[in-house]
Amino acid sequence: MTLPIFAHISVWWKMIRPLNLLIIALTQISIRIFCVVAIDAPLVDWYNDIVFWKILGATLCVSAAGYIINDYYDIKIDLINKPKDVVIGKNIHRRGAILGHFFVNFIGLLLGFWANIWVGIICFFCEFFLWAYSSILKPLPLIGNVLVGFLTASSIWLLIIPYYFVNSKTYNIFIFGIFAFFITIVREIIKDMEDIKGDQAHSCKTLPIIWGIKRTKNVIYVFVSILIVILLSTYFSFGGFITLYFYIFIVPLLCIFMFLLNQALHKKEYHFLSVFCKMIMFLGILGMILI
Predict the structure, then answer these.
(1) Residue 282 three-state SS
(2) Total structural domains in the chain?
(3) What range defines the domain where residue 158 resides?
C-alpha cells in the first residue's frame, strides 16, 4: 500500500482518466472560443474569462470524482474484466479513494457555485447522479447508459447558463450536445459488451446480459440511426458549416462504425469500437473549431 510520493501521484493520475478529462477540456474550450464568444470579438478575450475557467475547473473536478467513485464500486468486476488496471485496494486504500472522491467533489462544487449559482446547482445534481450511477444504476439495463449520456451532454450545455447569449451559433451547442448524448450512450453500451464476463459474475443486468449480444447490437443500430437522422435533418433544416461538417465527416464514420460492429465478435473488437467512438467524439470537437 505504501508508495513513493511520485508513484502515488501517478496512480491517482491514472485513475482520474486524464485523456477523458483532456477531451472534456478541449470540448469546453472549443465551445467557449467558437460559440459563446461574440462573432466580432477577439479570440484572445476568452483567456481572461474567469467565469469560464471556474466552470471548466468545476466540470473537470466533478468528472474526475465520478471516475474515482466508479472505480471504487467496480473493484470486484474490474478484477475480472481488467485486473491490471485495478489500483483501489492495491495501490490506494479504499478509504483513501473515498476521501479523495469527496475532496475533489467538494472543490468542484465550490468552483461551480463561485461561477454561477445555477452552475453550482447543476454540479451538485451531477455529483449525485454520478454516485447513483456507480452504486445503483450501472448494473441496470440502459438506464445507466442514458444517464451517462445526459451528463456528458450537460457538460456542453452548461456553458450556456452564465452567458445568457443568443446568436446565430447558439443552435450549434445544442446540436453538439445531442451528438455527445447519443455517441456516449453507444460507447457505454459497447463497454458493457466488452465487460460482459465480469458483469455476469456479479449478477449485473446490463443489456448484453439480459438481451444477448445480437439484440444489444440492434439497440446500438437504433441509437446510431437516430443520431444520423438528427444530424441530417439539422443540416437540411438549418444549414450552416457545423451541420455540413457532421454531414460530410461524422455521418460516414457512424456508418463505418455500424459495419465494424456487425463484424465484431470478441472483447478486443469491442474495445476497439469503444476507442473508435472516442475518436468520433474528438472529431466532433474539431468541428467546433471550423464554425
Answers:
(1) helix
(2) 1
(3) 5-289
